[in-house]
Write a structure and sequence with these properties.
Blueprint (H helix, E strand, L loop, with lengths): L3 E4 L1 H17 L3 H18 L6 E3 L2 E4 L6 E8 L4 E9 L12
Parallel strand pairs: 1-5
Antiparallel strand pairs: 2-3, 3-4, 4-5
Amino acid sequence: MAYTVHYLDAVIADVREAKTWYKAQREGLEEDFAAVIEQAIERIAQMPTAYGIRYKNIRFAHPKVFPYNIHFYLDEARQMIVITAIVHSRRHPDISQGRV
């Protein structure tokens, strides 16, 4: 079953904030971060049900390198993956609950 990927508007701000921080650490690191996040989202799109539900209907995916969590849920009726947050793993997981 093919799912389309959709992002809440707040996710763009999440990624922008993380990229700004990584760029300040080392030039080019923000591009590495973006590539790793993109790869993780591609894995989610291929097998979204491989990720367990953490709370309510929100699932988490973890990129291989950076300490971030990608929060998402499946809208089976529309065959959509909705990404609700991309946040540092030390942030409280409830962040995406307020966005849904």
